[in-house]
């Protein structure tokens, strides 16, 4: 397998996992959100990743989300399922379950929490690759995982048989650009923080974007891809500036990204928000007011752009 094995492209969404007040999965809201995002211009869904709170999901829940994603997609785009775990055996079991559910691929991150050497990270992926029954989308998010898929490591991993792409979410432009330059001839490179530098990533040759912000800002965030590809770059840059402000809003004033995403969805009456699972907690008080007031202002400005 390589980048030509798949047709994944464009703005895919790192979709939320909505929980009810009793912390059970709200399946109806999840499916409604997936349907809404496809209607807004999404080209695929990534389920049970960081935005999807993979750490709070058990094996059966991830398998169930895979089936819900595929059903809601109704053939409109690929369903890629997160497999976050430290244990290689658990990741492999999740890959087989995703295959059984009908998924198109899996998202695989390096081991998290346990600091690993370059050789250990490569060996980790070699073991998973040898037993994978689905195409693998690498996931570089060192801010969460603690271990980084450097451009040099990704260059090595791009030669593995099942690896077809990477979600590059380091948030570091130099890392993204170097990864694209070194491995883009063999695997597809997706920009994670498209709200921050999606337009330059598309102009540089990214195969697509995978971001959480379409959950609260669609079609705006999705249009970072669509407008740039259509040559409407000045409009895309205007949206990019709003995306940068939105990113700052969601990570300031007592807010963190994932609870803020759900709180904004609830504020806007969008399906797919709801409660975060512990250890995350819902926003309240000054943090919630900071978020909702800022979000209303940004969306009013966004409506004037596109």
Describe the 3D structure:
This protein is an alpha/beta fold and 306 residues long. It has one domain (10-232): Alpha-Beta Barrel (TIM Barrel), CATH 3.20.20.70. Helix content is 49%, strand content 11%. The protein has twelve helices and eight strands. It has an eight-stranded parallel beta barrel with strand order 1-2-3-4-5-6-7-8, surrounded by five helices. Helix 3 (88-101) links the parallel strand 3 (79-82) and strand 4. Helix 8 (194-204) packs antiparallel against helix 10. The longest helix has 21 residues, at 285-305. The relative contact order is 0.14. The model has no long low-confidence stretch (mean pLDDT 97).
The domain count comes to 1
Major beta-sheet overview: 8 strands, parallel, barrel
Helix fraction bin? 40-55%
Strand content: 5-15%
Give the ordered list of helices and strands: EHEHEHEHEHHEHEHEHHHH
Strand order of the largest sheet: 1-2-3-4-5-6-7-8
Mean pLDDT: 97
What is the distance, rounded to the nearest whole angstrom, between the alpha carbons of the first and last residues? Answer: 38 Å
Instruction: Write the CATH fold name.
Output: TIM Barrel
CATH architecture: Alpha-Beta Barrel
Low-confidence stretches: none
Number of beta-strand segments = 8
Q: In CATH, what is the homologous superfamily?
A: Aldolase class I
Number of helices: 12
- Which class of secondary structure composition applies to the elements? alpha/beta
Overall 3D shape = globular
Gyration radius over CA: 18 Å
CATH class: Alpha Beta
């Amino acid at each position: 397998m390589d980048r030509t094995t798949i047709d994944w492209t464009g703005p895919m969404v790192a979709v939320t996992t909505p929980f009810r007040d009793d912390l059970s999965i709200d399946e109806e809201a999840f499916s409604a959100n997936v349907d809404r995002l496809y209607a807004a211009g999404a080209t695929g869904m990534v389920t049970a990743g960081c935005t999807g709170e993979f750490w709070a999901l058990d094996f059966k829940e991830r398998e169930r989300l895979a089936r819900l994603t595929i059903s809601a997609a109704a053939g409109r785009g690929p369903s890629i399922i997160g497999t976050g775990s430290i244990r290689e055996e658990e990741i492999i079991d999740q890959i087989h379950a995703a295959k059984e559910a009908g998924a198109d691929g899996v998202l695989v991150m390096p081991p998290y929490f346990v600091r690993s050497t370059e050789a250990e990270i490569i060996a980790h992926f070699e073991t998973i690759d040898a037993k994978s029954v689905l195409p693998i989308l690498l996931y570089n998010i060192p801010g969460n995982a603690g271990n980084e898929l450097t451009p040099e490591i990704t260059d090595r991993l791009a030669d593995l048989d099942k690896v077809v792409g990477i979600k590059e979410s380091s948030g570091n432009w130099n890392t993204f650009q170097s990864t694209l330059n070194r491995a883009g001839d063999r695997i597809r490179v997706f920009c994670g923080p498209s709200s921050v530098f999606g337009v330059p990533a598309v102009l540089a040759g990214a195969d697509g974007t995978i971001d959480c912000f379409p959950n609260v800002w669609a079609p705006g965030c999705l249009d970072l891809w669509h407008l740039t590809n259509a040559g409407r770059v000045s409009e895309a840059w205007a949206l990019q500036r709003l995306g940068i402000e939105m990113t700052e809003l969601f990570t300031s004033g007592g807010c963190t990204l994932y609870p803020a995403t759900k709180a904004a969805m609830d504020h806007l009456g969008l399906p797919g928000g709801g409660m975060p699972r512990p250890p995350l907690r819902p926003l309240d008080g000054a943090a919630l007011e900071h978020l909702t007031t800022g979000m209303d202002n940004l969306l009013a400005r966004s409506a004037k752009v596109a």
